Amino acid sequence: MAEDAPKETPPDTAAVTGRNPVRTRQAIIEAATEEFSTLGLGGARIDAIAARAGLNKRLLYYYFGNKEALFQAVLERAYENIRSAEHGLQLDEVDPVEAIRRLVSFTWHYYIQHPEFITLLNSENLHQASHLKKSQRIRELNSPLIDTLHRVLERGRAEGLFRAGVDPLQLYISIAGLSFFYLSNRHTLSAVFGRDLRQPKAEAERLSHMTELVLGYLLR
Amino acid sequence: MAEDAPKETPPDTAAVTGRNPVRTRQAIIEAATEEFSTLGLGGARIDAIAARAGLNKRLLYYYFGNKEALFQAVLERAYENIRSAEHGLQLDEVDPVEAIRRLVSFTWHYYIQHPEFITLLNSENLHQASHLKKSQRIRELNSPLIDTLHRVLERGRAEGLFRAGVDPLQLYISIAGLSFFYLSNRHTLSAVFGRDLRQPKAEAERLSHMTELVLGYLLR
Amino acid sequence: MAEDAPKETPPDTAAVTGRNPVRTRQAIIEAATEEFSTLGLGGARIDAIAARAGLNKRLLYYYFGNKEALFQAVLERAYENIRSAEHGLQLDEVDPVEAIRRLVSFTWHYYIQHPEFITLLNSENLHQASHLKKSQRIRELNSPLIDTLHRVLERGRAEGLFRAGVDPLQLYISIAGLSFFYLSNRHTLSAVFGRDLRQPKAEAERLSHMTELVLGYLLR
Amino acid sequence: MAEDAPKETPPDTAAVTGRNPVRTRQAIIEAATEEFSTLGLGGARIDAIAARAGLNKRLLYYYFGNKEALFQAVLERAYENIRSAEHGLQLDEVDPVEAIRRLVSFTWHYYIQHPEFITLLNSENLHQASHLKKSQRIRELNSPLIDTLHRVLERGRAEGLFRAGVDPLQLYISIAGLSFFYLSNRHTLSAVFGRDLRQPKAEAERLSHMTELVLGYLLR
DNA sequence: GATGAATGAGCGTTCATTCAT
DNA sequence: TATGAATGAACGCTCATTCAT
């Protein structure tokens, strides 16, 4: 071996397998998100997460301590992501009817594009939000959506478009629930009612039904 | 730990729980329902179910074969129960508005009184309804609710009360989802929005909001 | 195969590998005693104990729950054994000098023949007797030795042979300690003092030294 | 758990404990002494030692190579300490009876004040003095005590005070064992005999018993 | 119909140790 | 001299399941 040759500075790909804590952390979170959202907290396997991430299992403990803490980190990331997406909504800048449409549509499409968010929330609720309650991070990420929706409803009422007396939190939960339940439960619903709710056509129908339902209620 | 320990030589009291297959079966299903609904399919433990039922673990295998089949039996029982409750609704015998009120209220209260139904469905959906699809029994238990709702909507439309063009399945999913999502996700929602949705007052508000929402949409 | 032939009642060796809980329990205790006494509580390996016993590792948990409980069971057995051996001493039936000789000699030879007793006690003391304190069994096994020794000393004093004012517990601890320390520490002592204390001749010298020491003190 | 977690980017305070090899080495030895004497060789954890010392785990390897070598260093330090204390005894300068008293008392108090010495020796004996045998350092530290005791016994005999024919090594082992066994085993002894041997009063009684025992034997 | 005894596979976690800088 | 990142092996323990009676 050319023993005197200067060691060639390794190209920036050294991080793929190691020595890049940020990337390693990220890889673990991603692999864990897949595993937890597919199999639930109880069904997920630490070995499988390590294998998915292509990392030594010991590293998961080095970075996160234990399975539950890793689950919490996955949840935190999931909330960071949706909060970040909510930022682009800008409901204050369109007319109230359009704002409601946009909110319904955003919620629907976000859940469709992030099915892991649904199953992670279901797992967390199965455990009575115990990880979320421990999380400082999630408390910091409080959503501005309820306040924004409050202003939208108020504008709509002021313009004589919307009915009065609508609790923005109740409405928000309804809008979220209309999408969430359909998507979360479509496997059982499809089986029970013998209609495949996972088809694109069914999904389009769902969105228009939900929009009609919410606006049909709000508009006086 | 102790659940597994060898027992002291027991006196000849094999008849304590009795050689009563029906009762034994029932005891297993109930214990399994608690365990699965509390911990999910992956988190449930066969040992724990046997302990809850006060029965020898081997009996679970004698009656149900394995864990997944037991889960399926639990699901089947859950569907039998809700179908049986739905029987008392008699929506065809009241006026359309009252029928809708009754359906919303029934759904809400059934979920409240059977929280295990919610978590079992979430578990089953996590596994993409695989057990449900295998179940002959659940297919036999098809719900008459969509047909009934169809007739209610038709009557409402004929009387000039309700809007036209409402898909009864979509509406049913919405009614179910409004309750289901709130109850299923109230732990995370409470934590995220800092408002305790598990309090009686919050629950009363939810029911009136849902009723208003659905009727506000339907009534023209 | 002679399908109608009566199944030959299995000879009494069916218990070697299984289905004999008493023998299984015994085999585990024996294997665990070897392992714990050789490597200490922290150094002992559950896998190794199972292998030594020729049993499935799971069985150790079935019978004893966990490592610490198994260690406790080993300790209890060790105390049962020494108590049982003490029973044969019958110090009340010989003259006081012979009784003291016999006690010193018994203690010495018991420790020599049961080296595991020494290391087990050392391990238990390292952990501040935490397992022993938990053990109901050991409390039941209280030794009659202190009372017996008290009577021996009293007899010796009455006969004008022994000095007065000897606390039997202190003397018992001294007699035990003279043997125990030598045997427990002979590896380091041999190394430090460059004299092999594990040789038969050294052992014989030790016994006569101890007997002389104790009787030299007692006799007036 | 947290001991292993990745640290937040630390400010440039590498000098907190300082680039002081002597002090670092000392800190490691002290932390390791606590850990090994508390938990034994098998129960001690490298991580815990590093945490106790407030140092990076890697440093322990830098200075000592591996766990066993560190244990050996701890042992060597323990022997250095006791040899150093023995230096102050000056048994040759007092009368024989006083010399024996002093030796018994010194041994007793040294063990009381250095409980780690007892458990370290027990650990080393569990492993059959394997580390001690490897240690050049400990061989260099040979104790003058046996020779000194030999002279004391000889003086006593010459003065007609002490009996003849006493092996100084046997006597030394007896003196050490009387203290060592009591202190090493007081947890189990207290539990078994239902008398708290760790109380100051019990300790005072022990010292006077031992002195009486040894002198009662020696004095003719 | 019912049970205590037994098992192979795999779980989450931790170990002492090494790498790269 | 010092450290954060990384690892293979193994740990104590538990899993769903089956055997033998």
From TrEMBL, chains A, B, C, D:
Q: Where is this region: Disordered?
A: 1-20
Which residues does UniProt assign to DNA binding?
Answer: 45-64
Is S-adenosyl-L-methionine among the key words of this record? no
Q: Where is the composition biased (Basic and acidic residues)?
A: 1-10
**Protein keywords:** DNA-binding
A family per Pfam: TetR_N
Query: Which InterPro entries would you find in this protein's record?
Result: Homeodomain-like_sf (IPR009057), HTH-type_TetR-like_transc_reg (IPR050109), HTH_TetR (IPR001647), NicS_C (IPR041474), Tet_transcr_reg_TetR-rel_C_sf (IPR036271)
**Per the database record, which ranges form the HTH tetR-type domain?**
22-82
Which PANTHER family does this UniProt record tie to the protein? Answer: HTH-TYPE TRANSCRIPTIONAL REPRESSOR SCO4008 (PTHR30328:SF54), TRANSCRIPTIONAL REPRESSOR (PTHR30328)
- Designated name of the protein: TetR/AcrR family transcriptional regulator
User: Which species is listed as the source?
Assistant: Noviherbaspirillum album
